[in-house]
Amino acid sequence: MTDIRIDDLAGKPLLYDRSAPGHYGTGGVPTRPFINQTFASECEDCFVELCRRLKDDAGLEVDKILTGGVSRAGSGSSLHHQNRAFDLDGFLFADGTNWVADTFPQRPQLYLGIEAVLRKHFGTVLSYDYNRAHQDHFHFDNGTAVKFKSAAKSHVIFLQNAIALVYQMPIGRDGVWGPQTDREVKALRDRFGIGALSSVSNWTALLDQIAKDAMEQERGTVGDPEDFEPETCPCCGQLLPS
Ligand SMILES: [Zn+2]
């Protein structure tokens, strides 16, 4: 298995942002990880799409990619040890703003838009709601093929999050496929004319739709200073603390 070294994806430099605690989300040091060649080309395709969608749908131009890295020291058997896993911590954007993975509760649409694109390219994506270890980064690897699995907690919680937070339908978010999830996912598929998720092309079509809708919502909800109206005291006109 051939490993290569890369210092960018989709032309965007990679920064390792965990070299100091204060770096997370703000910068970091340029990194050139060893990476499995096949996995590298899958990552390239994924980030080309991700950067294009962030720009076109969310209005965010990626300048740098923040990563927790690819390889792990030692002789473990994880996909990281095989240089076939990537930890995505965040992005720095050309307008000086950023996105980091631990802002899922504050910016769920952007988070889910990014997650949808990652899922189009990788069978294994671990996210904020998967477990505590993944609250500050997305982990993805090519250990499994892209395919929807109703028994996979990470797949189900993604769909439940999308239904609740992108499409604003009430649904329990427990990562378990039950009658309510079955009903709501069917309603979502019907809305977009997408067939059963047992077909890979239907799964990726649904991911495509979620990515677009989620990122367009991000564009509508973040970054417009005119949305902020400070409250003033009705008697003296002074600004009230928010
Ligand atoms: Zn990882």
Task: Explain how this protein is built.
The protein has 242 residues and is of the alpha+beta class. It has one domain. It is 36% helix and 17% strand. It has 5 helices and 10 strands; from the N terminus they run E-E-E-E-E-H-E-E-E-H-E-E-H-H-H. The strands form 2 sheets. Strands 2, 3, 4, 6, 7, 8, 9 and 10 form an 8-stranded mixed β-sheet that branches. It has a two-stranded antiparallel ribbon with strand order 1-5. A hairpin with a 2-residue loop joins strand 2 (8-9) and strand 3. Helix 1 crosses helix 5 (200-221) and helix 2 (108-121) runs antiparallel to helix 5 (200-221). The longest helix has 22 residues, at 37-58. The N and C termini lie far apart (56 Å). Residues 223-228 have low confidence and may be disordered. Zinc ion (ZN) binds at residues 80, 85, 87, 139.
Task: Identify the bound ligands.
Answer: zinc ion
End-to-end distance, in Å? 56 Å
Strand content: 15-25%
Largest sheet data? 8 strands, mixed
Brief overview:
The protein has 242 residues and is of the alpha+beta class. It has helices at 37-58, 108-121, 153-166, 179-192, 200-221; strands at 3-5, 8-9, 12-16, 29-30, 34-36, 62-69, 85-93, 98-100, 124-126, 138-141. Strand 2 and strand 3 (12-16) form a beta hairpin.
Index terms:
binds zinc ion, eight-stranded mixed β-sheet, 242 residues, alpha+beta, single chain, two-stranded antiparallel ribbon
How are the SSEs ordered, and which strands pair?
Elements: E1 3-5, E2 8-9, E3 12-16, E4 29-30, E5 34-36, H1 37-58, E6 62-69, E7 85-93, E8 98-100, H2 108-121, E9 124-126, E10 138-141, H3 153-166, H4 179-192, H5 200-221
The chain binds zinc ion.
Zinc ion (ZN) binds at residues 80, 85, 87, 139.
